C-alpha cells in the first residue's frame, strides 16, 4: 500500500478504488494491531499513519456522498 496518501490524491480516484484502498488499509491496521499485541511491532508510528489514512478515505467518501466534492471525469475530444 502506498504510504502517505493525501486527500488530494484520493479525491481524483473513483469510488471502487477508494473502497479497495480502504479495505487494504483496514487489513494493514489489523495486522499492525496484531503485531503490537504480540510484541512484534517495530514501527508504532505506522499505526497512527494507517489510522489517519483510513480517516482520509472516509472523509473523501463522505464529501462525495454529501455533494461537497464531485468526481470530474476526463473526456477526450478528438
TrEMBL record:
Family membership noted in the UniProt record: Belongs to the universal ribosomal protein uL29 family.
Key words of the record: Ribonucleoprotein, Ribosomal protein
Superkingdom assignment: Bacteria
Region forming the signal peptide: none
GO cellular component, one term: cytosolic large ribosomal subunit
Protein name per UniProt: Large ribosomal subunit protein uL29
A GO molecular function held by the record: structural constituent of ribosome
Gene: rpmC
Listed GO biological process terms: translation
SUPFAM superfamilies registered for this protein in UniProt: Ribosomal protein L29 (L29p)
Amino acid at each position: 500500500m502506498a504510504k502517505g496518501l493525501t486527500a488530494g490524491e484520493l479525491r481524483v480516484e473513483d469510488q471502487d478504488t477508494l473502497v479497495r484502498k480502504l479495505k487494504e488499509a483496514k487489513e494493514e491496521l489489523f495486522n499492525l494491531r496484531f503485531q503490537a499485541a504480540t510484541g512484534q511491532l517495530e514501527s508504532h508510528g505506522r499505526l497512527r499513519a494507517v489510522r489517519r489514512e483510513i480517516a482520509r478515505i472516509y472523509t473523501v467518501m463522505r464529501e462525495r456522498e454529501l455533494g461537497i466534492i464531485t468526481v470530474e471525469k476526463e473526456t477526450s475530444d478528438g
